[in-house]
From TrEMBL:
Residues 3-71 form the DUF1659 domain. It comes from Mesobacillus persicus. InterPro entries: DUF1659 (IPR012454). It comes from the Bacteria. This is DUF1659 domain-containing protein. Pfam families: DUF1659.
């Protein structure tokens, strides 16, 4: 049976930076690599909230991207 082994993890903070000419929001992301594999959703949310406090733009969402090796 195949197994998924967590290889690495990335945290992305998505900010709303303005509006385009159609009135739709513009989003930009800032990614942080080498997130600890054991980090919980609560811990990542706390870190993202702290980092977002340093930005001039409002935080829209927080995303975690995990890469796995399938063996």
């Amino acid at each position: 049976m195949a197994q998924a082994m967590l290889k690495n993890s990335r945290l992305t903070l998505v900010f709303e930076t303005g509006m385009n000419e159609k009135g739709e929001p513009i989003f930009k992301g800032k990614s942080y690599a080498n997130v600890q594999k054991e980090a919980t959703a609560d811990q990542l949310h706390q870190a993202a909230t702290a980092l977002a406090g340093l930005s001039a733009y409002p935080l829209s969402s927080v995303e975690r991207t995990d890469n796995h090796d399938i063996i």
